[in-house]
Amino acid sequence: MTDLIVTNFNRNFTGVSATAAGVLRAQVRRYDLALAGHPLPDCPAPVSLATARRLSRHPPKGRPFVIWHVRRNSEMRAAIWARDVLRLPIRIVFTSAAQRLHSAFPRWLISRMDAVIATTERAAEFVPHVRAVVPHGVDCAVFTPAPDRAAAWAATGYPGAQGIATIGRIRPEKGTDRFVDAMLRLLPERPDLTALVLGRAGRGDAAFLQELKDRAGAAGVARRLIFAGEIAPDELPALVRSLSAVVQMPRYEGYGMAPLEGMASGVPFVATDAGYYRQFSQSGTCGVIVEDAEQAANAVNALLDDPKRLATMARAARAAAVGTFSIEAEADGIGAVYKALWAGG
Questions:
Q1: pTM for this one?
Q2: What confidence tens digit (pLDDT) does each residue in 206-219 have?
Q3: Which residues pair with 237 in a beta bridge?
Q4: Average pLDDT in the 246-257 region?
Q5: How much is the pLDDT for 345?
Q6: pLDDT band at residue 15, thresholds of 50, 70 and 90?
Q7: Which of 60, 243, 254, 342 has its CA 20 to 30 A from that of 132?
């Protein structure tokens, strides 16, 4: 009998998909579960929504109901229909990362959840029914440090002796232009450095992307400021561990996994004060919080100029990822919410 249904209704691999996949891989060892919707990397083959409903017709042995864990509006709708219209014996858990007020319809959907897990204390302020604050974790068995960072970077095939990157959707909210601003200051001073923009732009941001590429070309750094596009999930860990720093400069971020994936890979970060980045920084031992492009360029320059400091931060970053922000810690926190729901009947 199935204890847990985890939903993934977005065919694109997004940040939400990445966090769901990491938790699901940890949960496979703990529950009799099914993934409903679209595939996730290294996770069980998904079942259809109809099959998920069929698996939820009867409570699992020793449990009063099946838990559906949802993370998107479409998934909340499907779960509410299964519980309230089809009258299936399920309860719904929703993970919320947004650090701002949801619009009206999502607020109504969230109000219908049986339990809400917020990823940060700030996110918990904007949603009802919060049972726990559980930060997202990183899979420290997938994201691991490189034995030889220089060799790992050389293996990527990108030019230069060192690499840094920003990771995520290309759009103003994510601060891709801020990253480019910082690189236009930094790259002329460091001819052996290559900067990567890893991610894709939606149709509405195509002109924004082209403008950034044009600026790189006009500055004469297009060969070392590379818009590499979206990287396949199974290829990302090897690329991240080859970097010397991850640089994230969003104007808004709900949580933000890129610095954490870097930390698990022994890669310090430079970032604006968004998402959970300040907590990740561990008072500056794992990452540097900056306000603008000039500060970001200076911070990266200082790190690269001081290999001893870079190595010390790399060790601290890995230790913090393993000790505080692991996927196992997230699965434990989520599991406590499940246990409380089941115990309450």
A1: 0.88
A2: 999 999 999 999 99
A3: none
A4: 94
A5: 76
A6: confident
A7: 60
Q: How far, CA to CA in Å, does 214 sit from each of 157, 221, 292?
A: 23, 10, 21
CA distance 120 to 254: 9
Provide the pLDDT for residue 1: 82
Type of residue numbered 263: M
Q: What is the 3-state secondary structure (H, E, C) of the chain?
A: CCCEEEEECCCCCCHHHHHHHHHHHHHCCCCCEEEEECCCCCCCCCECHHHHHHHCCCCCCCCCCEEEEECCHHHHHHHHHHHHHCCCCEEEEEEECCCCCCCHHHHHHHHCCCEEEECCHHHHCCCCCEEEECCCCECCCCCCCCCCHHHHHHHHCCCCCEEEEEECCCCHHHCHHHHHHHHHHHHHHCCCEEEEEECCCCHHHHHHHHHHHHHHHHCCCCCCEEEEECCCCCCHHHHHHCCCEEEECCCCCCCCCHHHHHHHCCCCEEEECCCCHHHHHCCCCCEEEECCHHHHHHHHHHHHCCHHHHHHHHHHHHHHHHHCCEHHHHHHHHHHHHHHHHHHC
Task: Map tokens 């480019």 to a residue.
Answer: 180
102 pLDDT tier (thresholds 50, 70, 90): confident
